[in-house]
Specification:
Layout lengths: L2 H28 L4 H10 L4 H8 L2 H6 L2 E4 L2 E4 L3 H15 L5 H12 L14 H36 L4 H15 L2 H12 L23 H39 L2 H8 L4 H19 L1 H11 L2 H6 L5 H11 L2 H29 L11
Antiparallel strand pairs: 1-2
């Protein structure tokens, strides 16, 4: 691959990233119920003054605005004018006293140095929150992706070689079930079967490690970690495994029907030689093409329900809660990181294409 292509792709990354952030910023501005409205609702439905002060950082000014405790909830002594005063203070606190375009360009300027600001509702920087949740998502994403590729590719190849045999039919039947069953239903089934439901108690349900993890020996730590991570990984991996297996099988079947395979067999090359010296390189291109999207999905978007079911505090749950609470710094900070990582992984995927098959030239796609 020529350097000019990489240079052009690298130039496209900030442009694409700017477009992604612009569109999402616009959509979020149009959505009803922003952070200020969320805070006003919390005040009116029972959030304590101390908690409100910690969240907004305007405890003293809220008292001057006429907020007082009343039984289990919050009431306002003043009139609508005092509510408006409180609203204006919250807008200033959250940065909504500036025009939308000014807020956007200030945000993007800070993002160039990976300064994502602080969460509206947690007294932590967005980057600290991401790093805090990252181990859970990395564990789920990496282990799930590795498991998928280690099983799906050999199984897909074997199904292609044994097309229309009992092995192909039986494995295809179970793979279809695995593909059709939602991951959260599979997770519940695994919990009932293996995690203290009606049958076995082999695995744990809460967190990545036990509370006494630090006091365990090295071997006990490994066992403890595996007993926590196995069921979530299986729940996430089975659907992706089935999909990749079907893709691999179809890619190999397509290549096995081509003329160069017939020629290689006519020259006396063994079946394994045909399969792994010729067919494998060509068939694997389409499989590699889906790697970046699968990894991104496993890391950041495919684990929300799994994290909830298994009480795992990861990036998926962080993003979901941020959208619910309209926590804009967390929403846009995580979006920026995920989009940037996705663009870089796609570029790496194209590079791997050329390593596998030097005949591919991406420069034509850029003209």
């Amino acid at each position: 691959m020529k350097r000019s292509y990489f240079f052009k792709r690298l130039l496209l990354i900030p442009i694409t990233l700017f477009g992604i952030m612009s569109l999402n910023f616009l959509f979020v501005q149009l959505a009803p119920g922003g952070p200020v409205e969320q805070m006003m609702i919390k005040l009116e439905t029972g959030l304590t003054p101390d908690a409100t002060a910690r969240i907004s950082g305007t405890g003293a000014s809220m008292s001057s605005a006429g907020v007082k405790a009343s039984g289990a909830g919050i009431s306002y002594r003043g009139t609508q004018g005092l509510k408006e005063e409180l609203r204006l203070e919250l807008e200033k606190r959250f940065g909504f006293d500036k025009p939308a375009h000014e807020r956007f360009f200030l945000m993007m300027k800070n993002y160039l140095t990976f300064d994502f600001g602080k969460s509206f509702y947690q007294d932590k920087k967005v980057m600290d929150l991401v790093m805090e949740k990252m181990p859970v998502s990395i564990s789920l994403g990496v282990f799930s992706t590795v498991l998928i590729y280690l099983i799906a590719i050999p199984l897909g190849i074997k199904r292609a070689v044994k097309k229309n045999t009992p092995f192909d039919w039986v494995s295809g039947f179970f793979l279809t079930i695995g593909y059709a069953v939602p991951s959260f239903l599979l997770a519940i089934f695994l919990i009932v079967l293996f995690a203290g439901g009606e049958y076995f108690s082999w695995f744990y349900l809460k967190g990545l490690v036990s509370d006494n993890f630090s006091s365990l020996t090295f071997f006990e730590k490994v066992v403890d970690y595996l007993r926590h991570i196995t069921l979530p990984v299986l729940s996430m991996a089975i659907g992706g495994l089935a999909s990749l297996c079907f893709l691999t099988r179809n890619a190999f079947l397509d290549e096995l029907g081509k003329q160069y395979v017939t020629t290689a067999r006519a020259k006396g090359l063994s079946e394994n030689g045909v399969l792994y010296k010729h067919v494998f390189r060509n068939a694997m291109l389409i499989v590699i093409a889906g790697f970046p999207s699968m990894l991104i999905g496993m890391l950041f978007t495919g684990s929300v329900l799994i994290e909830v079911i298994f009480s795992l505090d990861g990036l998926g749950l962080l993003g979901y809660e941020a959208v619910q609470n309209r926590d804009y710094p967390v929403i846009f900070g995580t979006l920026y990181l995920f989009a940037l990582l996705g663009l870089v992984l796609n570029l790496i995927s194209d590079f791997i294409y050329t390593l596998i098959d030097p005949r591919i030239h991406f420069e034509k796609r850029m003209t």
